[in-house]
Design goal:
The protein is an all-alpha fold. It contains five helices and two strands, in the order βααβααα. The longest helix is centred in the C-terminal third of the chain and has 94 residues, at 80-173. The mean pLDDT is 81.
């Protein structure tokens, strides 16, 4: 009778769950938790161990109906249509667990594949953007080069024209000296 007893707040701290969760599990899993003279729940080491198992199964993704069956309890009596729904839910739970387990086991590989695909897409996108930028710059430099050449042609033509005008003035602007018109 010297069995250690825990009140609900202590049990919830040990199990790292809220008190209302313990009460809910007690009701859903039909766990018989004894009460003291004042009607307060008290938990023994056996109860703590049982609830640790429940907590661990919940963390693994099992539902309370499945846990009840796993712990050896019988499902509550349900009408036939609800029983069918329960079986479907159990099937969904089991399939969800299988898929979750497969995803956990292959998470690293899946992550690598996703990262690889994303890296390739990013690389391709950056390459196409870089090519487009280079094409725009090439076009800009061509236009700039054409403008510079046009400006230079204009200056050289202007310079040639100025030289021609000066030459014409010199040729036609000189008076011939020493010749007397007769």
């Amino acid at each position: 009778m010297n069995e250690k007893r825990y009140i609900i707040s202590d049990a919830s701290k040990i199990l790292d769950v809220e008190s209302h969760v313990l009460r809910y599990w007690e009701e859903e899993l039909e766990i018989k938790i004894p009460r003291n003279e004042m009607g307060h729940r008290y938990y023994t080491e056996n109860h703590i161990n049982l609830l640790k198992s429940v907590r661990d199964l919940k963390k693994q993704g099992y539902g309370l109906k499945t846990i009840r069956i796993m712990l050896g309890g019988e499902p509550k009596e349900l009408p036939a249509d609800q029983m069918q729904n329960t079986k479907i839910e159990q099937f969904k739970e089991i399939m969800g667990e299988i898929v979750s387990k497969a995803l956990r086991e292959n998470a690293g590989e899946i992550g690598k594949n996703i990262r690889s695909g994303i890296n390739i897409e990013i690389k391709n996108e950056l390459s196409s953007q870089l090519e487009a930028k280079e094409a725009r710059e090439e076009e800009r430099f061509k236009r700039l080069d054409e403008a510079i050449r046009a400006k230079q042609r204009g200056k050289s033509e202007e310079s040639v024209n100025r030289c021609k005008k000066k030459t014409k003035k010199k040729i036609f602007g000189r008076k011939k000296v020493g010749l007397n018109p007769v």
